[in-house]
Amino acid sequence: MTFYWLRNPAATPSRARGFTLVELLMTIMVITVLTSMVLFAMAGAQNTAKENRTRAQVARLQELVMTEYEQYESRPIPPLNPAFEAAVAAQNVATGGKLVAQMRARARLEAVRELMRMEMPSRIDDVIFDPAVLASRPALNQAYLRRINSLPGGPTSWTGDYQQAECLYMIISKIPSGDVSALEFFQQDEIGDVDGDGMPEILDGFGNPIRWLRWAPGFLSNKQSSLSGDGDPFDPMGVDARENTVLATTPPTRLAFTMYPVVFSAGPDGKEGITMDFGSSVNYGPAASGPPYPSWNASLFWNDPYRLYNDPDNGLMFMGTPLPSAPNDYLDNIDGHSTVAR
Ligand SMILES: [Ca+2]
Ligand SMILES: [Ca+2]
Ligand SMILES: [Ca+2]
To answer: What is the Å distance from ligand 1's center to 163 Cα?
Structure first.
């Protein structure tokens, strides 16, 4: 039996129907939403990777500076400036010779603070200012000076931008690790010179210089607080008058307390949002405007861990204090106090 297909014009199927405009628009919308979801997820993953990398870098740097910092508790003191020694002796005479041990402790404390300032700098002035307590510049500080002096544009071509990061780089470059420096722990692409002044910085996952503050009394964390009740471990005899000055807050605030250096990244937003040594030395508040600075010599102020910075926008501030003028900038920072357990 044979069937013949009879052409019936009425039965001819119409050409495959196209998409209507609404369907097309719906399809485009769905594709757009899916694409943006994928892109968003990818960007999120990239940001997480950058954050993780930064966290690891900050933790490593924090460990390195903590190891150096802790050594100063038992650091032998080099010869002192004769003028400083004479001032110590005069004080001892004035107290009837009864405070010899305290005076020695005082001299040691001032010397240790100056060693830290010159060997673990976090600002340009820390490196270049003359010693006031020590008889001469420590060898490590002289090495830093040689580096600055060898800049193609001379020592003054070292700019204040990222100075905390540039100091951190110099410190790490001089920490020995076997036959090489601790800088070898870092890849080539982790080192840069964002401000192009010839002084390198270690860069975080977002490409911004990783900074540090040796002393940051305004930086409150799970590790350090003026409310903690812990005294300065470098001043076991409490010879800094502030060691015994406690403000009647609840709980009581100490003017001298245990501080830890803090290494930090400005985070994804690239803004640090805390008080640092932004400006020149004239911006620092001396004893009169800060907490009482017990000193035989006003220039010892440069070695004062609790010195104040006169911020043009925010007034007198302790280093490390979140900036009231930009209260959200510090929130995404990645700091060594929260990345390191010790
Ligand atoms: Ca610079
Ligand atoms: Ca630089
Ligand atoms: Ca930030």
So the answer is: 5
